[in-house]
């Protein structure tokens, strides 16, 4: 979804030169390194704990951290959507 929306926004920018499409596309593309650097390590730790079957006292803490980081991803996605919609609707308001 991230790749498709980033490429779609970049394509719209290329066709229309509307900067809102470019900004939305870049915001979506920024989620790839965000996810890899912040969520991916937590996912691996949680999966390792699940595979081992051991009770780890830090699981709850990791889940709360994961939830907070995922919420940040959601906010960036919504921001990109609103910027893109603003760019799409702005010419109609003139």
Give an overview of the whole structure.
It is a single chain. With 94 residues, the chain is mainly alpha-helical. It has one domain (2-93). Helices cover 88% and strands 0% of the residues. The chain contains four helices and no strands. α1 (2-16) packs antiparallel against α2 (19-29), α2 (19-29) runs antiparallel to α4 (59-93) and α3 (31-52) runs antiparallel to α4 (59-93). The longest helix is centred in the C-terminal third of the chain and has 35 residues, at 59-93. The chain is elongated and about 55 Å long. The mean pLDDT is 92.
Give the helices and strands, then pairings:
Elements: H1 2-16, H2 19-29, H3 31-52, H4 59-93
Helix pairs in contact: 1-2, 2-4, 3-4
């Amino acid at each position: 979804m991230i790749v498709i929306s980033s490429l779609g926004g970049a394509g719209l920018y290329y066709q229309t030169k509307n900067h809102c499409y470019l900004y939305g596309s870049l915001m979506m593309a920024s989620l790839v390194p965000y996810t890899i650097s912040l969520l991916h390590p937590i996912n691996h730790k949680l999966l390792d704990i699940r595979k081992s079957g051991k009770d780890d006292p830090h699981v709850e803490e990791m889940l709360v951290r994961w939830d907070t980081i995922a919420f940040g991803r959601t906010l960036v996605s919504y921001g990109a959507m609103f910027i893109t919609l603003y760019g799409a609707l702005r010419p109609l308001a003139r």
